[in-house]
Amino acid sequence: MKLVATKSITEGTELAKTIYSDNGQVLIKKDIKLTKRMLKRLHQLGITYVYIKDAFTEDIIVNPPISEELRIEAIQMVKTSFKDFQDNKVKSNGYLLEKTGTKMTEMVSNIVSEVKNRDEVLSILSDILISDDYIFSHSINVTIYSLALATELGLPNKQIHQIGLGAMLHDVGKVFIPEPILNKTARLTNHEFDIIKSHSEEGFNFLRKSSNIPLLVAHCAFQHHERLDGSGYPRGLTDKDIHPYGKLMAIADVFDAVTSNRVYRDAMLPHEGLEILYAGSGTLFDTKMLEAFRKTVAIYPNGISVDLSNGSTGIVVRQNKNLNDRPVVRIMEENGEQVSPHDIDLATHLNLMITNCDIASGNKV
Ligand SMILES: [Fe+2]
């Protein structure tokens, strides 16, 4: 399979992956030849790229970071819990939060075991899942990234689980922000922005009331927008005062935010997301953690198009786990001329560099 821009695909193209809604309903099934109506639907849903079947890339596999079933179940659970919190059933009644904390802890354990058992770098691009509400899929993506980073850092199991729960709940304070402000696509006024920013503290105050949610989990909500140089919020803490969980979550949160499709802009690709993070290395984000994070994500995910420094163009076939910026590439063109496809392992061709990475358009590489 390969990744192509939705706007460039034509009728009759076959999808290589099923597209689900966030409640697990199949929107467009894989292997079906796309009709004009389905193409229109993809545009309406804001899906900017899809995996398609293609004779030259049939053997390219894209593994989701966790199983589709678990991911859908997790998103649903966050959705139901956050809605319950919003309905205020819990603010006055700690019982629901206790119950939810227990359910979420179990869910985190399931995600931890799937993330730990994978032998590959993470590629959330592989899950093109539609979400009518960004916050729920964002909470799960941040959980997956945080757990992968915590594992890479070699943290003890207990801390990994706390981080997972903290990630799942890091934005819980947003349920107390009025929806018209939260979902506003136009430029926010300073006052509205201050209201949005209050979600960190709101989340903290909400979570710390629960006896079965560790205080450090509540601090993930409190500190995920703090930055090393003190430019973050709500308290403008600096490096030494920010808890490691807060530093870790900042990385996972920003990476998912910039690599996800939002109403106001298209998703960046992973290598662009990493560039954003690296621009803040040591000033906004912890350098050591960034290095570890870089090792956990697929910088050039399978199925993506890349240009190489020798003038050839190809599709990423598979990852090299310890050299995740040097994948195996199937060369399709050399200096603009089509060639018979052949694979080059960039881990052993150190003279070659990736000079560009993009989503292919249509049937062209
Ligand atoms: Fe946030």
What does it look like?
The protein has 365 residues and is an alpha+beta fold. The protein has 2 domains: 76-294, Hypothetical protein af1432 (Orthogonal Bundle); 305-358. The chain is 41% helix and 13% strand. It is built from 12 helices and 10 strands. The chain has helices at residues 36-44, 68-86, 94-117, 134-152, 157-168, 179-182, 190-197, 199-207, 215-223, 244-259, 270-279, 287-296; strands spanning 2-5, 19-20, 26-28, 49-52, 305-308, 312-318, 328-334, 337-345, 354-358, 360-361. The strands form 3 sheets. It has a 5-stranded antiparallel sheet, with no helix packed on it. The protein is globular. The model has no long low-confidence stretch (mean pLDDT 89). The protein binds fe (ii) ion (FE2).
CATH arch. level architecture of the largest domain: Orthogonal Bundle
The rounded distance between the terminal residues' Cα atoms is 12 Å
Structural class: alpha+beta
Write the CATH fold name of the largest domain: Hypothetical protein af1432
Named once each, the bound ligands are: fe (ii) ion
Number of strands: 10
What is the spatial order of strands in the main beta sheet?
A: 8-7-6-5-9
The biggest beta sheet, please?
5 strands, antiparallel
CATH homologous superfamily title of the largest domain: Hypothetical protein af1432
What is the top-level CATH class of the largest domain? Mainly Alpha
Task: Please describe the topology of this protein.
Layout: E1 2-5, E2 19-20, E3 26-28, H1 36-44, E4 49-52, H2 68-86, H3 94-117, H4 134-152, H5 157-168, H6 179-182, H7 190-197, H8 199-207, H9 215-223, H10 244-259, H11 270-279, H12 287-296, E5 305-308, E6 312-318, E7 328-334, E8 337-345, E9 354-358, E10 360-361
Parallel strand pairs: 1-10
Antiparallel strand pairs: 1-4, 2-3, 5-6, 5-9, 6-7, 7-8
Helix pairs in contact: 2-3, 2-4, 3-4, 3-5, 4-5, 4-10, 4-12, 5-9, 8-9, 9-10, 10-11
Bound molecules: fe (ii) ion.
